[in-house]
Amino acid sequence: MLDIKSNVLLKDYSNYKIGGPARLFAEVETVEDLSGAQRFAQNDRVFVLGGGTNLLISDKGFDGCIIHNNIKGFNKAEGGLEVGSGVLIKDLLDFCIENSLSGLEWAGGLPGTVGGAVRGNAGAFGGETKDNIAQVKSLDLLGEEKERSNEECNFGYRNSVFKLDVTSEIITTVVFNLKEGNKIDIQKQIQEKIDYRNLKHPMNYLNIGSTFKNIPFNSLSHDLQKEFAPFVKTDPFFVVPTTKLLALCGLKGRKVGGAMISDKHPNFIVNIDNAKAEDVKELIKIAKESVKQKYGIGLEEEIIHLE
Asked: Which residue numbers are catalytic?
């Protein structure tokens, strides 16, 4: 049965532990629940909440209906493994290890849900979500289910057709094209990625991942390409890590209120002392202005703002 509540505090559903109340909050565990929530909120503002990563929620909360996606499940399907969009990436990787399924080792330590990863074409260590997608099912505002092939999802750098309009369709299930592998090797590769994240990223503080997208190397002027050539990495094409630019601008450890630009990895803005969304926004503004002034580069945010 569909469960709809009022005035639910969103900070409890955020990796940041930041955010005010939602006027309405619908917990959905099945496609039928989701369809019911859409009908209930058809004349209201709607936002689909997954794992609460990559998301900065306003201190004022959300004057509309939050649909919390908790659609779970793993099923064999034609073309691969069908996974509920509300499944956490961690749980998907645990399933892959247990069943000796290879292809997603690059995602070790990736936060959030399957639906969020598909929507933003999440990537790391040279891999991207799109690399293993066979099919994506979604539900539109009329309650009609749609099926898309990999090509029809229009995947781009941290982008997809589902990111163009956050309210037009909601991802329900995803079919991953995986292959049989060696369980020990799969587990080892996933753990290596997790260990790297723990070493290089500020995992000891509340965070929502990278704040800004990396800079495509071919978008830079000849002079900047020459200056940044030593720092180029593949992600999945040649990019300059934004964290390097932020460090060169002297922003490590910069604080506003309870938020701080990480001194370990400055593309993370961390919550160190009951930070407010406005604290984070001010640091984002400072970072953008600093990089623009020093290098003439406009940073593009990777995170989503929920106002």
From this structure: 158, 210, 302
**pTM strictly above 0.85:** yes
Distance CA 181, CA 80 (A): 14
Task: Note whether residue 196 is domain-resident.
Answer: no
Cis peptide before 236 (omega within 30 of 0): yes
Q: Which domain holds residue 48?
A: 3-69
Structural domain includes residue 192: no
How far is residue 125 CA from its own chain's centroid?
15
Domain total of the chain: 3
pLDDT at 189 over 90: yes
Q: What are phi and psi of 277, to 5 degrees?
A: -60, -35
Q: How confident is the model at residue 114 (pLDDT cuts 50, 70, 90)?
A: very high
Edge-to-edge order in the sheet of strand 80-84: 74-77, 80-84, 169-176, 133-140, 145-149
Task: Pick the closest to residue 210 from 179, 243, 237, 177 (CA basis).
Answer: 243
